[in-house]
Amino acid sequence: MRDVAIVAFAQTAHRRRTDELSEVDLLMPVLHEVLGATGLKANEIGFTCSGSADYLAGRAFSFTMALDGVGAHPPISESHVEMDGAWALYEAWVKIMTGEADTALVYSYGKSSPGEVRDVLTRQLDPYYLAPLWPDSVSLAALQAQALIDAGDTDEAALASIAARSRADATANPYAQLTGDVPAGDHLVHPLRTGDCPPIGDGAAAVILAAGDTARALCSRPAWIRGIDHRIEAHSLGVRDLTDSPSTRLAAQHAGAFERPVDTAELHAPFTSQEVVLRKALGLGGDTRINPSGGALAANPIMAAGLIRLGEAAARIHRGESDRALAHATSGPCLQQNLVAVLEGESAHA
Question: What's the Cα-to-Cα distance from 206 to each of 49, 215, 307, 317, rounded to whole Å?
Answer without folding.
Answer: 10, 16, 8, 17
